[in-house]
Design a protein that fits this description.
With 152 residues, this protein is mostly beta strands. It is built from 2 helices and 10 strands. The chain has a domain of 89 residues: Beta Complex (Metal Binding Protein, Guanine Nucleotide Exchange Factor, Chain A).
Length: 152
């Protein structure tokens, strides 16, 4: 088998549901993160963090809409067609780079093959996932627990 074919076989592929956005990643993650902040909780993403430059968008670079949250350092990209949240981009870096990928978009990633970390950025301790380790602390500002009248 040629070196080029072996490289292609090792390449990890990720795509949104309609496949308008397709990415290649240099390697599968060892761990993924479930964040319970007010945004990630709604997106339902499980985040992997590839090294800068390890991700190539092979199709659909212009097929996403972005949402800049909070301090406007991260742009969350979702497919304009099917709505899948694909990745986060570190926009203030020079040059900007893909900071996190929604691991749910990687069809060959077996959840049992990675360690699940939880980050308690929502300060509730509530997660939809189950982890063998306790949630990690947060650097986000402390918030009160949500109440029945709360929209966040």
């Amino acid at each position: 088998m040629s070196a080029h074919v072996e490289e292609i076989e090792r390449m990890v592929r990720a795509a949104c549901h309609c496949t308008a956005v397709r990415m290649e990643i240099a390697e599968l993650p060892d761990w993924v993160l479930d964040c319970n902040c007010t945004l990630c909780r709604r997106y339902g993403g499980i985040w992997s963090y590839p090294k800068p430059g390890a991700v190539t968008i092979v199709q659909g670079k212009d097929a996403t809409d972005t949402y800049l949250w909070g301090d406007r350092q991260l742009a969350f990209h979702r497919c304009k067609t099917c709505g899948c949240v694909m990745y986060m981009e570190a926009v203030l870096e020079k040059p900007p780079f893909i900071y996190g990928i929604n691991a749910r978009m990687i069809p060959t990633l077996d959840p049992k093959s990675v360690r699940l970390r939880q980050k308690n950025n929502g300060h509730t301790g509530w997660f939809w996932t189950r982890s063998d380790s306790p949630p990690e602390g947060s650097h986000h500002p402390k918030m009160d627990m949500p109440s029945a009248a709360d929209w966040r």
